[in-house]
Design goal:
By secondary structure, the chain is mainly beta. The protein is 5% helix and 41% strand. It has helices at residues 134-138, 161-164, 282-285; strands spanning 9-12, 28-30, 45-49, 55-57, 62-70, 73-79, 84-88, 90-92, 99-100, 105-109, 120-127, 130-131, 143-146, 171-173, 176-179, 186-189, 192-195, 201-203, 208-215, 221-226, 232-238, 240-241, 248-249, 254-257, 268-275, 278-280. The structure holds zinc ion (ZN). Zinc ion is lined by residues 173, 189, 191, 193, 270.
Length: 286
């Protein structure tokens, strides 16, 4: 404020609850992505990497309130007072009413969960009927350097900076299989959703030739660009398109504006990366 010297302060993100990791491996396979509506698509917990048969531990002290099957998936629920933790697929070694301590073994990890590619533990965190982000309770690398005179910096976005910066918004829904909680239907979310308000200009991720420009069913107004490396990117739910098929576009050239056309509940950009015509996870390839 009074000096050009920048005082750096260690800022700790407060954690409302403090949980222990339930598995030895502290690796997150898939992050929390709560649905906008109670029964809408989304991801209500976090998926943690694990192996079949390994021990699962209670994240905090509590009382077992459920041990059995939910829609065919072995489930354990522990009540911690103000919050509950849920574990799937976990073959219980505890019974309803058992009091468990922090880190106490409650069962073993089952072979598969529909939302995981490989074996993983789906860990949920509930307060009343609301799903909260378990990672906030688990902590992790949440220490970062901030200037006391400025806004806290965004956490580094690995090597997907170009994608995150495309329309200036964060990823609100990742690529991958989503499971409908009622029907159990598995459906591939074939791109990533980037938050952006209606009318935000959409730049091409890189240069190429426009291979589609029009209305495409659930995708709404869509632009698809083929790039020199044989890959393609597409931009869906647009409110406007500013290039046509055959047009050459340069890196970062505006190809349209963010909208909510097609099957969409609000303005956002559905971004897809296609290799040999097949949608792949942009986070893993951009
Ligand atoms: Zn989408």
């Amino acid at each position: 404020m009074h000096s050009l010297l920048l005082a750096l302060t260690l800022a700790f993100t407060p954690v409302s609850a403090s949980w222990d990791w339930p598995l030895d491996d502290q690796r997150v396979e898939r992050r929390f992505d709560p649905p906008a509506e109670r029964y809408g698509p989304g991801h209500r917990g976090v998926d943690l990497s694990g192996s079949p048969g390994e021990a699962v531990h209670a994240v905090a002290a509590g009382t077992v309130t459920f041990a059995g099957q939910v829609a065919g998936v072995a489930t354990v629920t522990v009540d911690h007072g103000d919050e509950r933790s849920t574990y799937q697929p976990v073959l219980a070694e505890v019974e309803v009413g058992d009091v468990v301590g922090r880190g106490q073994r409650i069962g073993v990890l089952g072979a598969s969960h529909p939302s995981c590619r490989a074996t993983c533990l789906n860990l949920g965190r509930l307060r009343g009927d609301d799903y909260l982000d378990p990672l906030e309770a688990l902590g992790g690398e949440r220490v970062r350097l901030v200037s006391p005179d400025g806004p806290p910096p965004e956490p580094p976005a690995a090597d997907t900076g170009d994608l995150i910066d495309l329309v200036g918004g964060r990823i609100t829904s990742p690529f991958g299989i989503r499971v409908h909680p009622i029907t159990g239907e598995r459906k591939l979310h074939d791109g990533v959703d980037l938050a952006a308000s209606c009318g935000t200009p959409v730049p091409a991720l890189s240069g190429g030739t426009v291979s589609y420009s029009g209305f495409r069913g659930a995708y709404g107004e869509q632009i698809e660009i083929r790039h020199a490396d044989g890959r393609a990117t597409s931009y869906s739910h647009l409110s406007g398109r500013s290039v046509g098929v055959g047009d050459a576009v340069s890196d970062g050239e505006i190809v349209g504006t963010v909208g909510s056309t097609g099957r969409s509940t609000g303005c956002h950009l559905h971004f897809m990366l296609l290799i040999d015509g097949t949608p792949v996870d942009p986070m893993a390839h951009v």
